[in-house]
Amino acid sequence: MTSLGNSSSTGTEYIVRVPKNTSKRYNIMAFNAGDKVNCSTWTQARMERDMSNRRMYGEEETPEAGAGSEFGKKQREEARRKKYGIITKEFKVEDQPWLLKVNGKAGRRFKGLKKGGVTENASYYIFTQCADGAFEAFPVHGWYNFTPQAKHRTLTAEEAEEEWGRRNKVVNHFSIMLQRRLREQEHGEEEEEVAGEKGGKKKKKKGGKGGDLRIHDLEDDLEMSSDESDSSGGEDGEGKSKSKKDISSKAKAKKKKKRKGSDQEGLEDSDDGDFEGLEVDYMSDESSSEEEEPEKAKPNKGDDVPKGIDEASESEEESEEENKNEEEGKEEEEEEEGKKTPVQTEKKKKKEKESSGESDSSEDSDIEGETASALFMKKRTPPKRGGRGSAGSSRTGSRPGTPSIDNAATSNTLRAAASKLEQGKRQAATSSSDTPAAKRLKMEPSSQSPSGKSTPQPASGKSTPSSSDVQLTEDAVRRYLIRKPMTTKDLLKKFQTKRTGLSSEQTVNVLAQILKKLNPERKNINDKMHFYLTE
Amino acid sequence: MSDRGEVDLTGAKQNTGVWLVKVPKYLSQQWAKATGRGEVGKLRIGKNQGKAEVSFTLNEELTTIDSSSGKAPVVRAPREHPFTMQTVGGQTLAVFTETSSGENQLTNKIALEGVVVQRAECRPAASENYMRLKRLQIEESSKPHRFSQQLDKAVTTNYKPVANHAYNLDYEKKKKEEGKRARADKQQVLDMLFSAFEKHQYYNIKDLVDITKQPVIYLKEILRDIGIYNVKGTHKNTWELKPEYRHYQNEEKSD
């Protein structure tokens, strides 16, 4: 009942009522003006309490009865709290924040936090005008400040700190999140790959992790075994875990290969360390324990290599074949130098093994494989010496020259060709042509590097059939590495196959050996492994 | 339940405009005393030289303030309250209501009632009455809640010397009638232990003594047979059954 204009000034009077018995509780929903929230545009909204804090006040998850419980635990806990005066705040649903979702899943989300102290000293009332013109005043029960929740991805604190440190260097800030997303995608894929590979790897190899990878890769190339690629990833992981031993792995790799070939079927789910110390019947008459040890070392080294390859391949978007090669190469290069050599040898050994295992003659694989196997064959021949049999690794020149002789023994035209090649390379091979000497060299490349380099250098120099401008020599690699840190990819780029005359695989092998010999220092720059020398 | 959590948006769609008014505490207290339909006063909105003037007049019957001491009201609440109008800017304020259906908070109905279009502060018109009221309030609040008081006589009613406390007597009587713990049959004790360990995994030696009513040494002998004593870990100094005797759900072992 409004009484109209009865005061002196022009105005109207309205009755104010404060309804008593409403079960409705009025609350304020406050948005920041900058968020541009217009309630009238909302088509639908859902709001519920955010109960995520409830567990904070929940008791520890100790079982009340049965296993794991203590007699009288509750009473003791209670007594303890009283003694120390620990008071846990009750979980009041009333005080919990609100979660508001507007316009369904794709719409905006808000979080409403309760503002304290609103009803302490003054009361807020909501004045609504009713149909009859009177005002109704409702007390405000609570005040919630609603803030929009970001739907886009954000960086965590650590990442933000990183980016902050790089802000002067990074030009395109918009790409930061994009890169992150891409990286995650790759990572996700890689993980799957690694998982698959690991499974495959186990099947394939025993013990020689690194070597196994190598072997698998080669086998892939040669199409000798299935799910090679699977294993490469797994190998990487295993390889990394293995300690890198500085032992000439040639002999070992060879041994491994042999083992592999013979026991391939039965190698499912073998663990890395399971086969160490195992006496295996080899095709050839290699069976010296001394060789076995180096072989073991080799696989270890090889393991590292596989890991490297994964990293490398992850960032590369090259053709499969190239990937394969690069994987092999990367495996060899990224891991410690020591590993590389063994890996290479192992790879070669693998090939050899394959051939020996399966047909004891060059297998009918593609030419590359044949060449490689031929090369490997050469290396393989001196199993007794624990010949590293690394045809490829012979580039280091530390391989004994005997393999070549042995290779000749293997009557394989391809091998002969390969051996010829190798021989040519090996001409400058180490002074010490016996295995032990070679082993020693390999075992302590770092210690001997200053001296050892001189010897193998000529060998490595020869490793590339000269007919190009750039030779993949140890010297060249050294120069690059001294000048600035480089990744294996970078190094590979420097020695392009066209210019060096080597096949990509060979390049990879040679480079791996060189790196192993040089034993450069490793540094992680931008998540990539760089090598560098300081001389 | 799709209904739960669903916000009723009728108020928002209609863009119902409401006022948010800040009201002094004493006034809201008076309003709480309103009877009948809840009429508390009258709101006068006028235009004075282009500016809107809003003022609230409290009803007569609500001006009596009940003071805490129960005496007759000394002061009365002022009647005139002009409103100070403010803009809402900087914040978008909406009003939503929660209908608590019974105790269960989860089935509340949430509705958006409207948007705040105007903010106001209800101020009492400065008057003698109000000043007195305020002074009273200040006096009230400045009184300390805790204070020290000197006593004339010492309090002698609390602790009186007693030959022996009642509690102690009861305790001794209980002990006497219980008597020394006798060694029961080993098998019986084992049964008791196993059933106890079925309920809980870890027990204190004292609790076990309590449960089995056996002398400690004897009990320890038996326990050494079938159980182990945890020295380290979370369950310190507790006894538990040996793994082969255990048969808990979580564990795979069985005896």
Automatic annotation (TrEMBL), chain B:
Keyword Metal-binding among record annotations: no
Subcellular localization(s) per the UniProt record: Nucleus
Keyword terms of this UniProt record: DNA-binding, Nucleus, Transcription, Transcription regulation
Residues that span the membrane, as ranges: none
A Pfam family recorded for this sequence: TFIIF_beta_N
Main subcellular location of this protein, as a coarse class: nucleus
Cellular component terms (Gene Ontology): transcription factor TFIIF complex
GO molecular function: DNA binding
Sequence ranges assigned to domain TFIIF beta subunit N-terminal in this UniProt record: 16-103
BP terms from Gene Ontology: transcription elongation by RNA polymerase II; transcription initiation at RNA polymerase II promoter
Protein's UniProt keywords contain Membrane: no
TFIIF beta subunit HTH domain residues: 182-246
PANTHER family per record: GENERAL TRANSCRIPTION FACTOR IIF SUBUNIT 2
Family, as annotated: Belongs to the TFIIF beta subunit family.
Function: TFIIF is a general transcription initiation factor that binds to RNA polymerase II and helps to recruit it to the initiation complex in collaboration with TFIIB.
Protein name, entry field: General transcription factor IIF subunit 2
Organism: Pygocentrus nattereri
